[in-house]
Amino acid sequence: MVRSRSGDSEAYRELLTEISDVIQAYLRVRFGDPGFVEECVQESLLAVHRARASYDSRRSFRAWLFAIVRHKSIDLLRRRGTRNRYEVLDPDEGKHAGHSPDPTDAIVAAQLLEKLEPEQREAIVMTKLWGLALSEAAERQGVSIPALKSRVSRGIRRLRALLEAEPGS
Question: What pTM does this model have?
């Protein structure tokens, strides 16, 4: 990204190719629907192109990228007003499960994550959603493993409190 922002068109082409594959794999596991995945990949790539001036090279590129992908997937779900059934990966089983989650659950989860402190949100996303090892997530955040564990723990406690405060919980 840094090289592409400085005018290196080959680096930019390489970046778009690589992130396209990463975004597609990420969305395919979560949603399964090829039409949705392709549309979301395209919208995410356009958003990256439009927002590339906002990228701060001192921060995690991956976190910046997946914030864009998350927002674009939520926007697309909202626009579609969809209740489609998606095949999702069941983290407990390690295989595809037959249940059909409500896509609005992803919207609610994203809204709740947005209410966390940025450090807590990033720690939870890296460890719980992306599945990074504690050591890798700690390194990316520039903190010790115990500090990362604390961020995750505090973030989860905050999410529980937010869920309990939700009407109808």
Answer: 0.47
